Amino acid sequence: MAMNHRSHVILEKDLQDALTNDEFHLYYQPKVDLTYGELIGAEALIRWKHPERGIISPGEFIPLAEDTGWIISIGEWVLRSACLQLKEWEFSELDSITMSVNLSVRQLYQPDFLEIIRGIIEETRVNPEKLELEITESMMMDIDFAYTILRELKNMGFQVSIDDFGKGYSSLHYLKKLPIDKIKIDQSFIQHCTRDLNDATIVKTMIVMAHQLNFQVVAEGVEKEDHIVFLQRNLCDEAQGYLFSPPVAAYDFLTTVRNVNKVVEKHGLTNDDVVKKKWMEEEVRTARQELLETVREQQGMTLKYVKRDGRFIHTLCDGELLYRMGLTPEQVVGRELKEFLPSDLAADKVRYYEQAWNGTDKVTYEAEVNGIHYIASLRPLTKGGSVVEVIGSCVDITERKKVEEALRKNEEKHRFITENISDLIKVVNVKGIVEYASPSHEEVLGFQADMYKGERIYDYIHPDDAELVRYEFNQLLVTKQVRRATYRHKHSDGYWVQVDAKGTPVLDEDQKITHAVVVARDVANTQS
C-alpha cells in the first residue's frame, strides 16, 4: 500500500509538469458512415508520453486528473489542440470531416466554461458546426443544469453526443428532453453483439429507441467483420473501432483514411437490397413521426376535414391548443363538430367550414371553446378544380384576450402609470424576444419603446455583460423563480447606463412559463 501511495504521489507531481513539458499528444480515431462506407469524422484521444515510463494509459491518469482538478487545464488543452488540427485539415482532403472531443463533468461545471469554449473557437477560427462534444451520462444527474449548458452549446452550433451510452443510469424521461444529436453505444455491448443474444437485443433496442427520439447512433469498439454486417442490418448510423483503425497520430491519419474507406466495401453490405429497403422504411417512418411531432408540439393546433354525405368529418386534429381546450385527437378525428362541441357553437363553426369547402380562398374566424379563445384560418385544397380537403391552422389568443380586457378596464390607470414611472419595464417571451417596452425607455435610454419590440433582450446589453444576462434568463426559465442581474444597457448617444434588473416569470394555469417581466432601474439615478 505504501508503494502504491508513493507512486500515486509521484504520478500526481509528474502530471502537473506534463502540460508545461509538452508531454501530452493527441491521437485520432476515424469514425465511419455505415451507409456509404466513408470516413466522416475523427475522435481526438489524449496520450501521455512520460519521459521515464513511456506511454501512460488514459485510464490511469484521467481519474487522477479528475481528482486533482488538473482535468480542467488538460481538457482546455485537448479542445484547443483538436481545433487547431481540424483547422489544419481544412486545407486537405479532410476538409469535410467533423472532430469529436470528450468533455469531463468537472469541465462542464466550471462557472466560466462557456466563456472558455467561445474563446477557443474565436482563437482557432474553427466552425463549431464541425465539432462534436461528447459528454457522459453522469452529467444528467443535474438535469436542469445539463439542459441549460447543452442548450447554450447547441445555440453556439456544436453537435452534442452522449458517450459510453448504456453504462450509466440516465433516465429516458430526461434523455428525450435534452438537446443532443447522437448516442454512442458503449463498446462492451458491441463486442459480443453477434454472439450473445442479450447484447444483440440491447444494441438493437438502443438503435430503435435512438431513432425514435431522432438521435443518430454511433457504435464504439467495432473490431470484427461481422460487427459491420450486424450494425448495418440494424440501421446503425456510424461506427468506430480497431477494425477501421486504432487511434493514430495526425501525420498518419491521412494514410489511414485511404484504408478506412475500403473496410465497409470489403466486409459490409454495400449493395444489400434488404438493408436498402429497411433504410427507406426508416426514412418514411421518421418523416411521418416528425410531421406528427411537429403538429403535436406546436403551440397552436392543426386540423383537416373532408365532406362526406353532407357532413364535415375531421381527418386530422392535433396540437397543444387542442389539449388546452380539454379535447384529444381521439375525440375529434373521424367525427363532425356537433359530436364534441355544444350544438350552438358547432352550428356557428359549420358556416365557416362550408365557406372554405365552397372554395373561399381563406376563411378566418375567432372562437372560444371551454374558456380558450383562438383564431382559426381555413384553406381549401383542390384537385382537378374541386375541393378535396380543407386544412385549418389555429392560434391561441386567450392571453391576448385577457390582456385586452384588463387594459380596457384599466386604460386610464395603465396610461398614467406607464407615462410617469421611470422604471424600465420589458415583457419578454420565452425565446428572449421583447414584446413590450415601457415609454420610460425613451427618457432614460433615449430609444423609443417601439424600437425594442421584436428584438432580443440581449441586443442592447454590453457584450461583456450579455453572458451573465443570458445565464440568469435561462435560470429563470429553468427554476421559475425571480432572478436579478446588474449590467450595462446601451444609450442612444452611444454610452452605457448601469442598471439593476429583476426578472419575474409569468406562469399560465399549467405552471408553464409564458413570459418574463423585466424591471430595471438606472443605478446612478437610484443612488442619487
Structural summary, described in words:
It is a single chain. By secondary structure, the chain is α/β, with parallel strands linked by helices. It folds into three domains: about 1-290, EAL domain (TIM Barrel); about 300-400, Beta-Lactamase; about 410-525, PAS domain (Beta-Lactamase, 2-Layer Sandwich), CATH 3.30.450.20. The chain has helices at about 1-20, 60-70, 70-90, 105-110, 115-125, 145-155, 170-175, 185-190, 195-210, 225-235, 250-265, 275-295, 320-325, 330, 345-355, 400-410, 410-420, 440-445, 465-480, 525; strands at about 25-35, 40-50, 55, 100, 130-135, 160-165, 180-185, 215-220, 240, 300-310, 310-320, 365-370, 370-385, 385-395, 425-430, 435, 485-490, 495-505, 515-520. The strands form three sheets. An eight-stranded mixed beta barrel has the order 1-2-4-5-6-7-8-9, surrounded by four helices. It has a five-stranded antiparallel β-sheet with strand order 11-10-14-13-12, with helices on both faces. Strands 16-15-19-18-17 form a five-stranded antiparallel β-sheet.
